Amino acid sequence: MELTEAVRRRRMVRSFATTPLEPSVVDGLVADALRAPTAGNTGGTSWLVLQGPEETATYWEHATTAGWRATSSRSAGLSRAPVVALSLASPRAYVERYGEGDKAASGLGPAEAGGGGEPAWPVPYWFGDAAFATMTLLLGAVDRGLGACFLGNFRGETALLGALGVPGGWRLFGAVLLGHPGGSDHRSASLDRPAGNGGSRLHRGRW
């Protein structure tokens, strides 16, 4: 599929079929996502793939509330996704990388090495890189005829990562649900909202 077509066809699927995905398909998608750019070639992003209802249940248990699962009209459709891929980033990896010789002048390295540490970063590259990788995965799903949905990190991060044995210092950027569309998606109310801020989103030369 051409990139332009994948971009135009991409949408969030919020109701999945229970049909499992071949592990090789998932591995290929994640391998492509890991080729997304990382600042300073840090490689400080990772994916943790939960496949099958036994594994994905851990995500739903910690990242959502019992009340939401019981009352949301979308809960059942979302939770049927056979794969939940967690997009993770290590702030420490970036801070340490930017303390190395070729990057030390940035002032973004570890505090113990004379840098400013995490607070010195006006825009945290670790979340930017996680976003690049996430978009690569979303477009890859379209290319393979699959449905996908991104869910942000709203709650339960510490408990979820602890339950999954993720080492300390890693952050959850969000989760990508993968699977075959279930055919009973709820139309998002966000689609009725005017796009953008009421003006042009493209500016040339100056605002």
Structure, described:
The protein is of the alpha+beta class and 207 residues long. It has helices at residues 3-9, 23-33, 53-63, 66-71, 75-79, 91-97, 125-143, 157-163, and strands at residues 45-51, 83-89, 147-152, 171-179. It has one domain (3-182): NADH Oxidase, CATH 3.40.109.10. Helix 2 packs across helix 7. It has a four-stranded antiparallel beta sheet with strand order 1-2-4-3. It is globular, with a radius of gyration of 19 Å. Helix content is 35%, strand content 14%. The two termini are 35 Å apart. The chain is built from eight helices and four strands; from the N terminus they run H-H-E-H-H-H-E-H-H-E-H-E.
As for the CATH topology, it is NADH Oxidase
Number of helices: 8
Total DSSP E strands: 4
The H-level CATH homologous superfamily, spelled out, is NADH Oxidase
Query: What does the largest sheet look like?
Result: 4 strands, antiparallel
The oligomeric state of the chains shown is single chain
Can you tell me the residue ranges where pLDDT is under 50 for at least 5 consecutive residues? none
Chain-averaged pLDDT: 93
Q: Strand share of the residues? A: 5-15%
Which secondary-structure class do the elements indicate? alpha+beta
CATH architecture: 3-Layer(aba) Sandwich
Radius of gyration: 19 Å
Could you state the order of secondary-structure elements as H and E? Answer: HHEHHHEHHEHE
What sort of overall outline do the alpha carbons produce when their principal axes are compared?
globular
Q: So what's the CATH class?
A: Alpha Beta
In spatial order, strands of the major sheet run 1-2-4-3
